[in-house]
Design the sequence.
């Protein structure tokens, strides 16, 4: 009843506002636009909150509010739809005891208070949740640690009813013995679920082979998944953005390096009508690995490339703007932002009104869509603004409104963009920076002096 009431409450408020103030005033109502989690400087506790404001207003008017406190050291937010209603799942990953699961909190992102949760549930096939997507009554979730897909029945209290293991549940996919696999992305398009997995062929995290996108047919009555095919994409891939019946997959090309990019970094564009790919390589003048992509419309797409400098001090690279037609031709791209900043969580998102840049350890908001390097952000939120002075961003997400609203989600998959999947990259970079500066290395949980 609580979920139904939450939806009806938003509908009634919108209707009353329309009747009293008119439609333009209703569209200018303050709401939660952007979700985040931050952790304190010692990585011992965290919180979740939202950036709020009028969707059509200037970013300078935006404010932030804390929604959930008392979280652990690795919380993250993910958006999904239950029918037409936008919802969130807040997970807490137990870094020090991964097998000890903590309840996932299901949240109404537009409620004034995010507590109590709409539901709380553990899904034993998911450790370190990295992506969630829905179709009908079923939510599909994948986690970094286990490389499984969990099938969750939203109509039965968000209970996991089955799971699938990559790649062993699909005999057509063969990987080397001893390979470790990681769930990175999920997107629903029509009757199909597309799942992205990364692969370390001999275990560990230093060597990567091609990532895999698996195409699965969804039985809408049972939630069952049926293998339809798979396709190899770049090494260490972690985006699965959908636009106009194509998927866009950014791949670092290997592990993150200090002082250089990877020779194998690339952008793969998968045409879903044929399930074939076009591979895009950067020009020689471009710095960095392919890290993120966001598409507004046919005329406006942005791509972010970057790599860390020596000792992982700063990210160096740039954001480029182009049309969708020219995404396969990087020489036609225009640089709109030079990047040389510290921090570890990175990502970009653009809509018709503004540009969001999760920039290391801050969130920069542009009042429009940048067209050159002279365009700059007009509002910045730091961890201090969001709840922890000296703390760190841990995850960030665009909060998609309910689909019946005037701002329906762009993607047919109906899922707003999350930067939470980049938290593993952030953790790896932080550890590498520590080791580079101190000479200490973590081996089997012990800190030792390293001479390599």
Sequence:
């Amino acid at each position: 009843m609580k979920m139904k009431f939450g939806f009806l409450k938003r509908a009634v408020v919108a209707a009353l506002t329309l009747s009293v103030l008119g439609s333009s005033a209703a569209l200018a109502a303050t709401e939660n636009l952007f979700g985040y989690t931050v952790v304190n400087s010692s990585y011992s506790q965290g919180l979740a909150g939202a950036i709020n404001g009028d969707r059509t207003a200037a970013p300078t008017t935006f404010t932030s509010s804390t929604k959930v406190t008392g979280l652990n050291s690795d919380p993250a937010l993910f958006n999904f739809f239950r029918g037409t209603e936008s919802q969130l799942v807040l997970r807490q990953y137990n870094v020090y005891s991964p097998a000890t699961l903590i309840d996932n909190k299901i949240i109404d992102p537009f409620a004034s208070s995010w507590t109590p949760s709409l539901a709380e549930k553990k899904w034993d096939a998911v450790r370190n949740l990295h992506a969630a997507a829905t179709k009908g009554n079923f939510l599909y979730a994948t986690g970094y640690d286990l490389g499984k897909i969990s099938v969750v029945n939203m109509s039965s209290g968000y209970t996991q009813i089955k799971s699938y293991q990559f790649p062993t549940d699909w005999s057509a996919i063969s990987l080397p013995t001893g390979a470790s696999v990681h769930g990175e992305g999920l997107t629903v398009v029509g009757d199909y679920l597309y799942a992205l997995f990364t692969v370390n062929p001999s275990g560990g995290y230093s060597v990567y082979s091609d990532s895999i996108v698996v195409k699965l047919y969804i039985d809408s009555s049972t939630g069952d998944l049926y293998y339809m095919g798979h396709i190899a994409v770049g090494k260490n891939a972690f985006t699965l953005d959908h636009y106009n019946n194509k998927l866009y997959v950014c791949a670092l090309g290997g592990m993150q390096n200090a002082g250089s990019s990877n020779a194998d970094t690339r952008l793969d564009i998968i045409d879903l009508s044929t399930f074939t790919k076009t591979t895009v390589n950067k020009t020689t003048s471009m710095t960095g690995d392919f890290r993120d992509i966001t598409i507004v419309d046919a005329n406006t797409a942005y791509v972010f490339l970057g790599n860390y400098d020596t000792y992982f001090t700063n990210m160096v690279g740039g954001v480029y703007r182009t049309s969708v037609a020219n995404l396969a031709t990087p020489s036609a791209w225009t640089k709109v932002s030079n990047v040389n900043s510290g921090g570890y969580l990175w990502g970009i998102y653009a809509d018709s009104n503004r540009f969001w840049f999760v920039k290391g350890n801050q969130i920069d908001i542009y009042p429009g869509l940048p067209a050159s390097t002279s365009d700059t952000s007009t509002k910045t939120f730091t961890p201090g603004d969001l709840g922890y002075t000296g703390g760190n961003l841990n995850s960030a997400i665009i909060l998609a409104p309910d689909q019946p609203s005037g701002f329906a989600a762009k993607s047919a998959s109906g899922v707003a963009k999350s930067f939470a999947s980049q938290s593993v990259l952030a953790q790896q970079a932080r550890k590498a920076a520590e080791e580079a500066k101190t000479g200490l290395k973590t081996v089997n949980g012990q800190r030792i002096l390293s001479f390599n």
Summary: The chain has one domain: 47-54+61-435. The two ends are 59 Å apart (CA to CA). Residues 236 and 301 are 22 Å apart (CA to CA).
